[in-house]
Amino acid sequence: MKQEKIWANTYKIKNTFMGRIPHDSDLLEQINSFCMVNDIRSGIVNIIGAVKEARLGYYSQNRQNYRTLDGENLTGGLEILSCTGNVSIKDGKPFAHLHLIVSDSQGNALGGHLMPGTVVYAGEFIIQEFEGKDFIRGWDKTTGLPLWLPPED
Questions:
Q1: Which one, of 19, 73, 69, lies nearest residue 49 by Cα?
Q2: CATH code, 117
Q3: Domain containing 84: what range?
């Protein structure tokens, strides 16, 4: 098995934003919009709260595409146990890549890639914006994913 060399950039925290996500809004759209408006090009995101409905996905490694999870356990009021991810640049603009874990009224948890269509009941977020070189997402032919591109030498 061929191993690639690990690489990383160094960052300092530039700003920390704390805010509330509007009721009945799309969770992913709100975070992406906030990053666009505030020109947040790199950072980390944490969200807590609840959603009326969750749209979660997973990446099919065999098919090399995202599949959306279905089921009634994704509606009817769910607690956000964890929603975390990062902000980088994709197609020239800020892009939030987030994963979401929710629980139902029985405490059953389900998680995956946050997809458009997740409807907020109540949400609070913290975004830490980084100062440093942009991480750019580009097509990775091995995985079929838009991954961070290695820095140019």
A1: 19
A2: 3.30.1330.80
A3: 13-132
CA atoms within 13 A of residue 116's CA, in its CB half-sphere: 4
Whether 139 maps to a domain, the answer reads: no
93 inside domain: yes
pLDDT tens per residue, range 102-140: 999 999 999 999 999 999 999 999 999 999 999 999 999
The terminus-to-terminus CA distance of the chain in angstroms comes to 25
pTM for the model stands at 0.92
Count: domains in the chain:
1
Exposed e or buried b per residue across 93-127, where buried means at least 16 C-beta atoms within 10 angstroms of its C-beta: ebbbbbebbbbbeeeeebbbbbbeebebbebebeb
The Cα–Cα gap between 136 and 9 comes to 12
The answer to whether position 144 is within a domain reads: no
Structure confidence by residue, pLDDT tens digits, 57-105: 999 999 998 899 877 768 889 999 999 999 999 999 999 999 999 999 9
